[in-house]
Amino acid sequence: AAEQHRLRVRQRFSGFYDLSVHQSGGATDIDGAHFEAEAYVGQMLKHKGLPELVAKSNELSGEIKELDSDMQMLVYENYNKFIAATDTIQLMKEKVESLGPDLARLAASVHDITTTSSNINSNLADRRVRIQKLNGVRRLLKKLSIIFELPTRLNRAVELDACAEAVKYWTSSLPVIRAYSHVPAFKAVSGESEAIL
């Protein structure tokens, strides 16, 4: 009986919230979709006696009170959820609003950093090109110093009887000497080196 009562309450709430409507019965089915109070009362008056009508009235009054209590509980629970949701939304709004100035400052800082970085890059671009050129000149001077020291190195290698070392010096320098053989200084280094070998 208690289970049947719970089922009925659940069906009524489902009907109230339009979750699922009880499809059985006609105008006199109290849980039906097409229930008519006048037809139900008329049928009860025809077929039931006074004690049964009083019992049914008491049963319906109890169900109404229980449904009313359940409805109030649902309203109360949903109201609390609504208040909690409203508070949460308000907090989120405040957090987002408080982030606004921080985000604006962050955007301004990022813009300043980008501008400063661009300025530094443009200022250093000329220096970077000069450094690269100077680095190229330094490497060339190092190679030239090795070429111009070639006769001295060859003499030292021959004096130490390190002929293989002398040949290595000569063969590694030969491509540069040949490439610049039209320059008098290279021509002189080439002549001195050949005389030593």
From TrEMBL:
One of its GO terms (biological process) is Golgi organization. Its main location: Golgi. It comes from the Eukaryota. One of its GO terms (cellular component) is membrane. Belongs to the VPS51 family. PANTHER family: VACUOLAR PROTEIN SORTING-ASSOCIATED PROTEIN 51 HOMOLOG (PTHR15954:SF4). It holds the Pfam family VPS51_Exo84_N. Gene3D superfamilies: 1.20.120.1130. The keyword Transport applies. Keywords: Golgi apparatus, Lipid transport, Protein transport, Transport. Transmembrane segments: none annotated. Acts as component of the GARP complex that is involved in retrograde transport from early and late endosomes to the trans-Golgi network (TGN). Component of the Golgi-associated retrograde protein (GARP) complex. This is Vacuolar protein sorting-associated protein 51 homolog. It is found in: Golgi apparatus, trans-Golgi network.
